[in-house]
């Protein structure tokens, strides 16, 4: 009888595998972005002492279809991407790009000024600059 080598269970590895399984479930083919056609753009948020900077990959979405909502402690980016095929009789051979609505919500640790948000949509990348609220100096 041959014996298999003993491999102790590593808790850290199991935690990573569980995290990956949930990530695959939420963002994979059958999760939130699944057959319903919805999708989630990839978004990076950077922080400086006076602002948050946001970069969102939103190719194929017209600027007027991107909705930005900023409250003192929350950023919401939502919108809609339509199908790119203009020929009604065309049949899909390989369909990889996701279409439909998207919705992303991010809590912001520091209060921001929702009235001074700067935005630019260039080459499929949405860029935001969200200034933080100025702290009132104490006497």
Automatic annotation (TrEMBL):
InterPro entries: A-crystallin/Hsp20_dom, HSP20-like_chaperone, Small_HSP. Pfam families: HSP20. Residues 34-139 form the SHSP domain. Belongs to the small heat shock protein (HSP20) family. This is Spore protein SP21. It comes from Gimesia chilikensis.
